[in-house]
Amino acid sequence: MRGYSLLEIIIVITIAGVLLAISVMAYSTFLDRQRLNKAAEEVVTIIQKARAMTVSSYGGTAGQQYCVRLNDFDDPAPNKLIIKDATFADIESYTVSEGVIVASFVFNPSPVDNNEICFKRLSGDAFVNVGGTPGSLVSPLSVKLKSQSSGKERTVTVSSTGVVQAQ
Question: Average pLDDT of 123-143?
Fold first, then answer.
């Protein structure tokens, strides 16, 4: 007699199902990590762009400062980072990657609301603008990113000298 018994076929299908489930879980973890990494790199790029705009006198106005502000959570599109100029006009707006939220700006060491990361014109040093009033130098400021699916976090830090890096 040739062929496979019903028991052998069920065992093979069960093993294949277990291997498929393991690979799907590993792939979803990989995608989640990649989304978080991409969002962190986007935030680094946005903050570096605001610093570069300030140091280079973007827009032809000497002494112009640019800031990065987290959009309010009660806004219809809450997951945005906005580059603003000294007159509080929106220059550019960026939506962070899908599946990742900007959880908070953390400064010395508690979360802050309605604040901006700004840069000094000549040095590029970073400081916190609290409600339109220039605050103290950043020491350091963190932007916390959180995955909506797994809850994992990634941190982008801005040092007092304006150096931005993802951790």
Answer: 72
Average pLDDT of the chain is 81
Cα gap 96→100, rounded to integer Å: 7
What residue spans of the chain are helical by DSSP H?
6-55
Q: Tell the residue number behind the tokens 């150096």, with chain if given.
A: 163
The full set of domains in the chain, from first to last, is 30-166 (3.55.40.10)
For tokens 């929106």, name the residue: 90
Would the pTM of this model clear 0.70, i.e. be above it?
Answer: yes
Mean pLDDT over 15-35 rounds to: 94
- Residue spans of beta strands (DSSP E) within the chain: 66-70, 80-85, 90-95, 100-107, 110-112, 115-119, 126-130, 133-137, 141-147, 153-158, 164-166
Of 110, 107, 126, nearest to 118 by C-alpha is 126
Say how far apart CA 25 and CA 21 lie, in whole Å. Answer: 6
* Angle, alpha carbons 146-152-156 (nearest 5°): 55
